[in-house]
Design a protein that fits this description.
Layout: H1 5-9, E1 19-20, H2 28-39, E2 44-48, E3 57-63, E4 67-73, E5 79-83, E6 98-100, E7 103-105, E8 112-114, E9 119-121, H3 125-129, E10 142-148, E11 152-156, H4 164-168, H5 176-180, E12 184-194, H6 198-206, H7 215-222, E13 232-234, E14 240-246, E15 269-275, E16 279-284, E17 287-297, E18 300-310, H8 315-329, H9 336-349, E19 357-358, H10 371-384
Antiparallel strand pairs: 1-19, 2-11, 3-4, 3-6, 4-5, 5-10, 7-8, 8-9, 10-11, 12-18, 13-14, 14-15, 15-16, 16-17, 17-18
The structure holds FE2/S2 (inorganic) cluster and fe (ii) ion (FE2).
FE2/S2 (inorganic) cluster binds at residues 86, 88-89, 91, 106, 108-109, 111.
Length: 414
């Protein structure tokens, strides 16, 4: 039966952990809160070490907390990050997406900086500043950086945060042989600019019920042995792992099984880990896909996709990995653009009639259970001090640590 306006607006008869108030996808105040309480304090992936392979290489990066950063490899080959802001009068130091330079020179008044962030030249320093301003006081603002877990360059704006290893915990342990046995290299990069909330992309990576949208996945995974036994594992800090599957690529017409893999993985094996607050390691045997999110506003996100192989690949191996990657995840592949249609459609509805969003499937933590999303929003709610189903504290508590629906609970479907 179709629902009236009153029915539509009524809170679902579900535990408060099992649905989302859509205002968390559109409210500017909540977005500012996320930037301050989540993104400004957590580790996020800025790029991969192979994107700055030589000394003096740099690239610029828009940090999700709303800061512009420079990622740079020094003469000592160490990768560092800095605010892309001149300490003189606040000009942007570097404009291009990437490049190579021994010094970074601000175009405004020509203050110069080395790749360790030291100020190495102030034009006519003594004539104007006498001894009141010196180079030692004019370095760039350095940002904590660790290269880890497959050579990804993690940055954290919070100088007081724990290490990346503390943050990840055991979430990537099952993938560690594949990630850490030998150096990796990025072979593909593309970016999607989508008018939707960033969390909705991570949701898509955190649930597999939407495999109904993917004909390729239905044929090669859902209809194959083991699919419905895949289980989610939750880790501290909001991370979750999806159980492995061996994919039968040959079940999709025109495809063949993969000839290459990653260290420690069998052919056609699939591993996947979602990291809070919006990074995914997706390893389909021969190629690793890393998703990272750059939210620009509550309803605008840039999603970065990187494809990685082994640095030592022969040209033939690399060509095969690229082909495998593109067949699924390239712009004309059989999977990723369909996921983009999902979050694009959700984005169209944000603020235009979107009601409560359900995360209510319970199937013993198996593949169509929505526990991965619930785990994410439990962490999100704890970090923000707001319930994801009642972000403004308008409802009475239901004993789940957050507010409840106005109606008594019904048992969630099993
Ligand atoms: S603002 Fe950079 S040198 Fe003046
Ligand atoms: Fe998908």
């Amino acid at each position: 039966m179709a629902r009236s306006a009153a029915d539509w607006d009524r809170r679902p008869s579900l535990p408060s952990t099992h649905f989302i108030d859509p205002r968390i996808y559109s409210d500017v105040a909540i977005f500012k809160d996320e930037q301050e309480k989540i993104f400004a304090k957590t580790w996020v992936i800025a790029c991969h070490e192979s994107e700055v392979p030589e000394k003096y290489d740099f690239r610029t990066y828009t940090h999700p907390a709303g800061k512009n950063l420079i990622i740079s490899r020094g003469e000592d080959m160490k990768i560092r990050a800095f605010y892309n802001v001149c300490p003189h009068r606040g000009n942007t130091v570097l404009y291009g997406p990437s490049g190579n330079g021994k010094h970074m020179v601000c175009i405004f008044h020509a203050f110069a900086f080395d790749t360790k962030g030291n100020c190495v030249d102030i034009p006519r320093q003594t004539a104007g500043y006498q001894d009141r301003v010196c180079k030692a006081d004019m370095g760039l603002r350095e940002v904590r950086t660790e290269t880890a877990f497959g050579g990804m360059v993690y940055v954290n704006l919070d100088d007081g945060a724990g290490s990346v290893a503390d943050f990840i915990g055991e979430a990537l342990t099952d993938m560690s042989v594949a990630l850490s046995s030998e150096p990796l290299e990025v072979f593909s990069y593309h970016k999607a600019d989508v008018h939707t909330n960033y969390k909705l992309w991570h949701d898509t990576n955190s649930e597999f019920y939407h495999d109904y949208m993917h004909y390729h996945n239905r044929q090669t995974s859902m209809m194959q042995p083991g699919y419905f036994e895949r289980k989610y594992t939750q880790y501290p800090n909001g991370h979750a792992r999806v159980g492995d599957q061996t994919v039968n690529y040959e079940a999709y017409e025109g495809f063949k099984g993969r000839d290459l893999s990653f260290p420690g993985m069998s052919l056609n094996q699939w591993k996947m880990v979602d990291l809070f607050p919006g990074m995914t390691y997706n390893l389909r045997g021969s190629s690793l896909r890393i998703d990272t999110l750059i939210p620009l506003s509550p309803t605008h996100v840039q999603i970065e996709y990187r494809g990685l192989g082994l640095l030592r690949d022969t040209p033939e191996e690399r060509a095969q990995r690229i082909d495998d990657y593109n067949s699924i995840w390239g712009p004309f592949g059989r999977n990723l653009h369909e996921d983009l249609l999902g979050v694009h459609g959700q984005g169209l509805a944000i603020g235009h009639g979107q009601g409560f969003v359900l995360h209510a499937r319970e199937e013993d933590s198996t593949i169509h259970d929505e526990i991965g999303m619930r785990h994410f929003y439990a962490e999100w709610s704890a970090k923000l001090g707001r319930s994801s189903s009642d972000p403004y504290g308008e409802q009475p508590s239901d004993g789940n640590g957050s507010a409840s629906g106005a109606q008594p609970h019904l048992a969630a479907a099993h």
